């Protein structure tokens, strides 16, 4: 019996190639996924990791072995796979481990129309099916057809953002040897951009730096290049190119919360009164700006399954997370860093100010970023933090996702446990840097006691 408990995560399947994830398991997952979602076909894509083509092919064998066809789109970013799933109205599978080191790989699954498959929406059933053995199918085998969808994907994205009046921009793009090196040239083709490319060669060994722009060390090369060439903006994508981080002309990172607010304002200009989703760790500037632009801010837990579910329930036009995941109703409620990047470029190119000045409208508070602490008992440390602040004058406490405490001076913090390790993740925001640092240090003193 296969035990998948170590590699079935909240939103995908991910593990060490060979030890935890191999072709045989990929084949079994393909068969189980097909049993879960049915036909007529499944669309399959993969990233540039050395192990990805073999795993994708084995998964496809599992699908066709159940009598269901496969549409193989080959090299793809994760949002390109979502596009294929939505455009073709087929369930999909993307082989990638995103920003993880080269020895890892994984499978992101979705139902037709890019609807998410997570622990509570299919992964648990797949784990059980694989664990007990997928029933043999005795009918005719399915067929595999290949379809290049890069051009259709690029054209679709450009159709969602008006770039007709954009001034020429110089852009540095760091693909991190990931899938943006495959997608950016097609998406930006014909646009008034001078692109200075960095690490566009597809290489799943990540020879230059990890393809994880969330870590400041992985932005250093991009920041230096932006300053060196006098670029208007820098873009950094993660390994599967579903997240995009933005750097201004001075080389300073732009907060994903500010990007969320900017895109929300642009989307609300097209549909006044619409709902916009933000998770509880995004800056409180986001709901403020959404309201100021006539929208309805809706707060959710962290995680794409919660965002997408709430978008479906509310009909929200857009959603953003602190981690640089951006979700669009017009993109089947799926996330696309590339689409968010096009919005930033359209906003920047549609006026004459530099990016830092433009984004100052959307940045109102001082934030700590995520501060992680390894602790023996996360639950006990969270209770201690709650007890410390419970009787603080004017403090409001909620437990929608971990512990969130809002103070009377406008400061707030959120403390969340990791799903996979004994770690507490702290995010703090305050009206100014001094207040933020004081609150951060006070909470950390309790957490690390």
TrEMBL record:
Residues 8-128, 152-251, 259-365 form the Alpha-D-phosphohexomutase alpha/beta/alpha domain. SUPFAM superfamilies: Phosphoglucomutase, C-terminal domain (SSF55957), Phosphoglucomutase, first 3 domains (SSF53738). GO terms for biological process: carbohydrate metabolic process. Transmembrane segments: none annotated. Keywords: Isomerase, Magnesium, Metal-binding, Phosphoprotein. The keyword Hydrolase does not apply. Gene3D superfamilies: Alpha-D-Glucose-1,6-Bisphosphate, subunit A, domain 3, Alpha-D-phosphohexomutase, C-terminal domain. Residues 370-445 form the Alpha-D-phosphohexomutase C-terminal domain. Its cofactor is Mg(2+). One of its GO terms (molecular function) is metal ion binding. NCBIfam families: PRK09542.1 (NF007088). Belongs to the phosphohexose mutase family. This is Phosphomannomutase. The lineage of its organism: Bacteria, Bacillati, Actinomycetota, Actinomycetes, Actinopolysporales.
């Amino acid at each position: 019996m296969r035990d998948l408990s170590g590699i079935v995560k909240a939103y995908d399947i991910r593990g060490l190639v060979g030890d935890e994830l191999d072709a045989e398991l990929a084949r079994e997952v393909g068969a189980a996924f097909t049993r879960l979602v049915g036909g007529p076909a499944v669309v399959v894509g993969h990233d540039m990791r050395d192990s990805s083509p073999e795993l994708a092919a084995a998964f496809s064998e599992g699908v066709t072995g159940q009598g269901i066809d496969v549409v193989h789109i080959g090299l793809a970013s994760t949002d390109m796979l979502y596009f294929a799933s939505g455009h073709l109205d087929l369930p999909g599978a993307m082989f990638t481990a995103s920003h993880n080191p080269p020895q890892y790989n994984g499978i992101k699954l979705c139902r037709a129309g890019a609807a998410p498959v997570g622990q509570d929406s299919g992964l648990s059933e797949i784990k059980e099916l694989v664990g007990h053995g997928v029933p043999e199918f005795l009918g005719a085998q399915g067929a595999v057809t290949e379809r290049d969808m890069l051009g259709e994907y690029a054209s679709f994205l450009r159709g969602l953002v008006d770039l007709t009046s954009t001034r020429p921009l110089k852009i540095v793009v760091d693909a991190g040897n990931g899938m943006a090196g495959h997608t950016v040239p097609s998406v930006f083709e014909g646009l008034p951009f001078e692109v200075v490319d960095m690490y566009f060669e597809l290489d799943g060994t990540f020879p230059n730096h990890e393809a994880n722009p969330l870590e400041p060390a992985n932005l250093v090369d991009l920041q230096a290049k932006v300053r060196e060439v006098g670029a208007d903006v820098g873009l950094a994508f993660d390994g599967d190119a579903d997240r995009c981080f933005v750097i201004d002309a001075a080389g300073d990172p732009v907060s994903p919360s500010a990007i969320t607010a900017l895109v929300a304002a642009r989307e609300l200009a097209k549909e006044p009164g619409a709902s916009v989703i933000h998770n509880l760790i995004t800056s409180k500037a986001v709901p403020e700006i959404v309201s100021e632009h006539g929208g309805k801010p809706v707060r959710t837990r962290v995680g794409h399954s919660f965002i997408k579910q709430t978008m479906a329930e509310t009909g929200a036009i857009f959603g953003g997370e602190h981690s640089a995941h951006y979700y669009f109703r017009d993109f089947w409620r799926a996330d696309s860093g590339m689409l968010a990047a096009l919005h930033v470029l359209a906003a920047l190119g549609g006026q004459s100010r530099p990016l830092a000045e433009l984004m100052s409208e959307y940045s109102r508070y001082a934030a700590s970023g995520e501060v992680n602490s390894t602790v023996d008992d996360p639950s006990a440390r969270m209770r201690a933090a709650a007890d410390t602040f419970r009787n603080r004058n004017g403090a409001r406490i909620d437990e929608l996702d971990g512990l969130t405490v809002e103070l009377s001076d406008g400061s707030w913090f959120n403390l969340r446990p990791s799903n996979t390790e004994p770690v507490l993740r702290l995010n703090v925001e305050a009206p100014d840097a001094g207040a933020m640092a004081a609150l951060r240090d006070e909470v950390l003193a309790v957490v690390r006691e």
